[in-house]
């Protein structure tokens, strides 16, 4: 009966919960939509930012107030953008806004860095456009170090473009002022991309807050449809319309760097390629209310001459007749395959070549055209084999591998990208152990001395540079060849540098926590020292001090020689006899057996094999009397036996308590009598 009743209660309760849960599914409760924060897309300093306004005037609004004489409101887009054909529209600017400085960061044109005014090399290039408000519609604009240009109208839109790897600015989308100083040259492979967003520094006059407004960001300003223009308007639901087309950037491995130093998409006829993309957009790449153009969704559209095996695997097929007639450029569409159909983002004119027609090996650029790139490479190389400690320059620790900087800015090929080319490094060191070749861009610096190396390349079709054109060894003479059809002097691409054994020796004693206590008569193994050096000798010394609290600088330390160094049985020095030394059994490194209480010190000295450089460090071990021990042959005392008995009884009591608490006794039931049994 009780079981049946419990079952009914459980079923009723379950039904009640299910009905209530179902009812909540059909309630149409109002949901409060919080306004989207502009901080998701913009970072600020000395300012606040929000989305505000209606219709075409809805803007990204930065509220700026003068904080100090030289302080400005700083607003930076978090997402990187493509800047080849960029337009940024501004709202009306108060005359209290004195200047707006637009900072664009990109990668350097030379992969190892463009040379700056101090003779160093920067891999991040900063182009700045300073728009100064002189009053009313009177503006002047300055690009980097160039002279300021007058602008006789209100600035409503800034255009940024890239031509021949130089950034330029304009205000009408047709006329641009371009930079031409070599330092400001930027990397453009598929497109030119910012490396850390775009920053706006806004300087104002007066104590009142001023509003700096950005109305739209257009990554393809020349596109008259406006599909790439991102405004901040809201839809009927109150959400920002983020449906501008993003731009996609095709991975570098598909682009060949040719003799003019520019990158071109080139493919072998009939070869399958695996592609990858990066998506760039102010809001992250949303193309419809339900679809987002992530890199994983970007795909090719199959057209004449193009076979698509998956969204990322393609093969270009052109007839031999077309190639022979030099009609070998295929326009390939790249886009987002949304549910509603293919949405085109970009197209690429891809040059297609027959492998059989490719018999040209990769080439190094002529010296006259590439002096700065060679200098940049050599500076990056020096950073690899030298280090600076305490403002003193020295060679790296011998025994390390030297990983060469990228040679991407030094070499080119008509058909293969830098990533597709294979390379062989041939190097000649101070001795036979440091001479050889490598299929990777690194080799070992095992000895001090002069190293010479060069790198020969082979393209994806197997065409390889002739290594003998670079460098030959004839006895002790080095013979430099004249490399390549262009007459490049090979000596300029054979690099030499010297490595000295002058790296600081780094020696650290074990931490105090890792040094355990010692006991008289018990063998002690000290903790190892941490040594960072190469080409060195290591010696250890043991000392004793009767003061147990002595540290490594205390007086009273007495040297304890290694047992193997004492062979005279009549030895008796510093309070130690021959027998004492053999009992301590110091092994000349980290092990010994203390013979008396006090402090013992082990000192490690690391000395260079080549120079007089050395470093020392010590660890101090506190030693107590003989460690207490228990003789298992002795019978347990009466107290020990009683302790064991009491513990056993206590355990049984604990078991009994658990049984009483958790084991319920069987209930007594009353016998039910049938009516026929009643009397």
How would you explain this protein's 3D organization?
Helix content is 12%, strand content 38%. It has 679 residues and is mainly beta. The strands form 16 sheets. Strands 2, 3, 5, 12, 13, 14, 16 and 17 form an 8-stranded antiparallel sheet that branches. The protein has a 7-stranded antiparallel sheet with strand order 1-4-15-6-9-10-11, with no helix packed on it. Strands 19-20-27-26-23 form a 5-stranded mixed sheet, with no helix packed on it. A hairpin with a 7-residue loop joins strand 33 and strand 34. It starts with a helix and ends in a 17-residue tail after the last helix.
Global mean pLDDT: 83
- Overall shape: extended
Give the helix/strand class.
mainly beta
Fraction in helix: 10-25%
**Poorly predicted ranges:** 4-33, 481-487, 657-662, 666-679
Gap between N and C termini: 27 Å
Largest sheet: 8 strands, antiparallel
Rg over alpha carbons = 40 Å
Number of helices: 5
């Amino acid at each position: 009966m009780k079981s049946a009743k419990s079952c009914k209660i459980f079923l009723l309760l379950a039904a009640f919960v299910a009905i209530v849960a179902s009812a909540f599914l059909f309630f149409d409760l109002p949901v409060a939509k919080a306004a989207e924060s502009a901080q998701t897309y913009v970072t600020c300093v000395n300012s606040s930012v929000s989305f505000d306004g209606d219709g075409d005037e809805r803007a990204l609004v930065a509220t700026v107030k003068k904080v100090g004489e030289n302080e400005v409101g700083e607003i930076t887009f978090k997402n990187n953008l493509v800047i080849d054909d960029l337009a940024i529209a501004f709202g009306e600017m108060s005359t209290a806004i004195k200047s707006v400085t637009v900072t664009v960061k990109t990668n350097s044109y030379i992969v190892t860095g463009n040379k700056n005014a101090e003779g160093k090399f920067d891999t991040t290039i900063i182009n700045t456009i300073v728009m100064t408000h002189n009053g009313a519609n009177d503006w002047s604009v300055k690009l980097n170090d160039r002279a300021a240009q007058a602008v006789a109208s209100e600035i409503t839109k800034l255009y940024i473009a890239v031509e021949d790897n130089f950034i330029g600015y304009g205000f009408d989308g047709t006329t641009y002022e371009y930079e031409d100083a070599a330092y400001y040259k930027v990397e453009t492979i598929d497109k030119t991309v910012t490396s850390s967003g775009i920053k706006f520094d806004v300087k104002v006059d007066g104590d009142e807050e001023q509003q700096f407004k950005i109305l739209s960001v257009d990554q393809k300003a020349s596109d008259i449809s406006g599909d790439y223009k991102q405004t901040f308007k809201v839809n009927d639901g109150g959400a920002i319309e983020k449906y501008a087309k993003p731009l996609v950037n095709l991975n570098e491995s598909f682009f060949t760097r040719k003799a003019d130093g520019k990158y071109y998409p080139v493919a072998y006829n009939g070869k399958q390629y695996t592609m990858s993309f990066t998506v760039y957009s102010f809001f992250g790449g949303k193309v419809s209310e339900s679809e987002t153009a992530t890199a994983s969704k970007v795909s090719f559209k199959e057209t004449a001459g193009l076979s698509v095996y998956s969204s990322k695997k393609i093969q270009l097929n052109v007839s031999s007749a077309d190639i022979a007639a030099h009609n070998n450029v295929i326009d390939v569409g790249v886009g987002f395959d949304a549910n509603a159909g293919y949405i085109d983002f970009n197209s690429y004119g891809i040059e297609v070549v027959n492998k059989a027609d490719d018999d040209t090996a990769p080439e190094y650029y002529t010296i006259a055209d590439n002096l700065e790139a060679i200098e940049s490479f050599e500076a990056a190389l020096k950073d690899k084999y030298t280090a600076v400690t305490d403002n003193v320059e020295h060679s790296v620790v011998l025994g390390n591998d030297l990983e060469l900087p990228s040679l991407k800015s030094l070499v080119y090929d008509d058909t293969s990208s830098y990533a597709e080319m294979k390379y062989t490094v041939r190097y000649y060191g101070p001795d036979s152990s440091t001479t050889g070749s490598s299929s990777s861009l690194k080799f070992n610096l095992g000895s001090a001395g002069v190293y010479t190396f060069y790198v020969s390349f082979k393209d994806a079709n197997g065409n390889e540079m002739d290594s003998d054109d670079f460098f030959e060894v004839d006895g002790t003479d080095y013979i430099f060849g004249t490399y390549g059809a262009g007459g490049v002097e090979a000596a300029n691409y054979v690099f030499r540098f010297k490595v000295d054994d002058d790296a600081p020796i780094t020696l650290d004693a074990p931490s105090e926590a890792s040094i355990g206590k010692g006991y008289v008569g018990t063998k002690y193994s000290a903790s190892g020292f941490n040594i960072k050096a190469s080409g060195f000798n290591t010696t250890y010394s043991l000392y004793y001090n009767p003061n147990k609290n002595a540290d490594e600088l205390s007086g009273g330390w007495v040297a304890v020689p290694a047992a193997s160094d004492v062979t005279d049985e009549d030895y008796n020095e510093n309070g130690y006899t021959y027998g004492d030394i053999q009992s301590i059994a110091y092994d000349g490194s980290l092990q010994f057996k203390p013979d008396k209480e006090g402090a013992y010190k082990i000192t490690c000295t690391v000395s260079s094999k080549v120079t007089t450089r050395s470093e020392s460090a010590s660890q101090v071990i506190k030693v107590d009397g003989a460690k207490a021990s228990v003789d298992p042959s002795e019978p347990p005392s009466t107290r020990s036996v009683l302790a064991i008995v009491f513990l056993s009884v206590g355990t049984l009591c604990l078991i009994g308590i658990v049984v009483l608490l958790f084991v319920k006794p069987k209930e007594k039931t009353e016998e039910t009598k049938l009516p026929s049994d009643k009397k």
